[in-house]
Design goal:
Layout: H1 7-10, H2 13-16, H3 20-46, H4 64-77, H5 81-88, H6 92-107, E1 111-113, E2 116-121, H7 124-134, E3 138-146, E4 169-176, E5 182-190, H8 195-200, H9 204-210, E6 216-217, H10 223-228, E7 233-234, H11 246-274, H12 277-280, H13 289-304
Parallel strand pairs: 3-6, 6-7
Antiparallel strand pairs: 1-2, 3-4, 4-5
Helix pairs in contact: 3-4, 3-6, 4-6, 5-6, 6-13
């Protein structure tokens, strides 16, 4: 049975999660890199460069615009590949290959910079350099995504068990600005790893020394960073001694409230990512989650950078 669906419907914002204008921009931006990926795969299969002129040979049954739309629908609603194949009139394997190609291209785009069209941040060092140049106070936090339990009787199985969630998870780190706009996301690690350990593995200690004017607002999970980088890594004030005066306790609670109000935009950024169904709970292969999270965060940054 073949189901014919209007392509205009499949490109609607309700399905793709992005506006039609954004979809057009993505198609224009990713067309050339995708063609390079396809040619590279074909050259590897042929054992050498093509002999015929570009454009010769069999045509793709799923054109590039539909490949991008199918990938966005999968990221936004986590529809099975077989369902997408039915909607686009192709085999499930074609959809799987298309999603794998386009998702990797989306993950490699980086993150949009507010009021800087064409400029994108790809590493944490880029974010620190941008923050020091523009005087931006960063907000950093980690979030966990539930994943499938690893196969029994294999080494490292317990590494994904989160002590906080009591589930098998992977942990992602996100950096946002005062408006809740995503500036960087990544550093996905097994859920058992501590938040501070995860971001230290990304080299944040060296970045604090390299960019001394950058200030990062953190929660209580990063007290070690505050100890090592006072005045740069800012966490809520510690609890005073029990015998301290009531005014001391009241001032501490007020300071914690003000710190939370300043740090809350990064929580809004995390919520923007979790609205994409696949990141609410990841039911696919764990090794594809990092590229998926980066792809979603990149798309979200495009929207928030213009608002």
């Amino acid at each position: 049975m073949t189901i014919k669906v209007n392509r205009a419907v499949l490109g609607h914002r309700v399905l793709t999660g992005v506006s039609r204008r954004h979809l057009v921009d993505l198609v224009v931006e990713l067309a050339a890199p995708w063609q390079a990926v396809v040619e590279g795969r074909r050259d590897a299969a042929r054992g050498g460069a093509r002999q015929r002129a570009a454009g010769a040979g069999a045509r793709h049954r799923l054109v590039f615009v539909d490949r991008v739309s199918a990938t966005l629908i999968h990221l936004r609603h986590d529809l099975p590949h077989a369902v997408l194949g039915l909607l686009f009139g192709v085999d499930r394997s074609t959809i799987s290959r298309a999603i794998g190609e386009v998702r990797g291209l989306l993950a490699a785009r980086g993150f949009a910079v507010p009021d800087r069209p064409g400029v994108r941040l790809r590493t944490l060092a880029d974010v620190f350099a941008y923050a020091q140049a523009e005087g931006v106070v960063l907000r950093l936090d980690a979030t966990e995504v539930q994943v499938r339990r690893p196969t029994p009787h294999r080494g490292g199985r317990r590494a994904f068990v989160s002590g906080k969630k009591k589930q098998n998870t992977m942990k992602a780190t996100v950096v946002a600005d005062a408006m809740g706009r995503t500036l960087w996301a990544g550093n996905l690690r097994p859920g058992r790893m501590h938040d501070a350990t995860a971001i230290r593995s990304e080299g944040i200690d060296d970045l604090f020394r390299q960019f001394p004017k950058v200030q990062v607002l953190l929660d209580d999970g990063y007290l070690g960073l505050r100890r090592d980088h006072p005045g740069k890594a800012v966490t809520p004030p510690r609890k005073p001694n029990k015998i301290a005066a009531p005014e001391v306790h009241q001032a501490r609670e007020q300071a914690r409230h003000e710190h939370s109000s300043q740090r809350i935009p990064v929580e809004h950024a995390l919520a923007d990512h979790k609205r994409w169904k696949g990141l609410a709970r990841w039911t696919h292969r764990r090794d594809t989650l990092p590229a998926t999270y980066l792809a979603v965060a990149s798309l979200v940054s495009d929207r928030t950078a213009t608002t």
